[in-house]
Structures are given as C-alpha cells and as structure tokens.
Amino acid sequence: MSSPTHSPTVTPSHxxxxxxxxxxxxxxxxxxxxxxxxxxxxPALKVYELAFxxxxxxxxxxxxxxxxxxIFLIVIGIDRxxxxxxxx
Length: 88
Fold this sequence. Notes:
Layout: H1 7-23, H2 26-31, H3 43-53, H4 57-87
Helix pairs in contact: 1-4, 3-4
C-alpha cells in the first residue's frame, strides 16, 4: 500500500515499533529475566545487567550508545523510504 494519505500515520508508527522492539526489556526482565540461558535476552536487558549487576558502567554505556545509534539509523532509513514512497 503506497497511499500518500496513509504515509504520515504509518511511518511514525513503524518507527515507534522499531524503537520499542529494540529498547523493551521490562517485560522480558519481569517474566523470564532473559532465560532460559540467554534465549529471550534483548540488547537493553544486557545494558541493564552490565551496569547494575556487573558494575561495568562503561561497557553498558558503550552498548547503550551503539544501540541508540542503530535505532537512529533505522528511523532515518524508515523516514527516507517513506519520503520516497510519497514522491512516487
């Protein structure tokens, strides 16, 4: 579907779902704590575990900044695809 009237609504919704998928760790932490093993672990949970359980704040900050950069690039890509779709 490439309707120009839907694009202003779909694009932010898609970007929001990408951000939520990468940053969500509360549900995983509460239900499984990343287990069994690391089967349900997400990157944000790893950041939390490194910072607060392992005391490796620097490593957690580096992973967090990398994750933020990845999210930024994904959102920019979604935005550019949406703009290209609106022009055609």
